[in-house]
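As practice, study what follows.
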Amino acid sequence: MNQAIICGRLVRDPEIRYTNGAEAKAVAKYTIAVDRMKDKEADFISCVAFGKSAEFAEKYFRKGQRVLISGRIQTGSYTNKDGQKVYSTDILIATQEFADGKGAGESQTGSRPSPSNARADGFMDIPDSVDGEGLPFN
């Protein structure tokens, strides 16, 4: 199974290009700095989005924002202008969304509805009138 899920900050604004041909398709590339669990270091992960996901990234993602993405890892290689073989590793994006702050809760398909009793910490206040019947915990 080839699946990657990462959360990190955008190193710079996404770059978007369009494929050639009658049906030009948007392709966005961006890099996410992902903190390592125990170190004070980060890995810089190259990400590629296509179509509407690419257009979403260009419109809403900005340098420094924390984002959550999932997709698959793809490796490749090419020969640069100096004749050297260059290897690449990218995550081809399946889903992408804001991880926090302004825009949190928005995903590539738009914004999620938020309950009217949601708090800033993401939890909901349950009214005292609720007796606990039907809740998944007691």
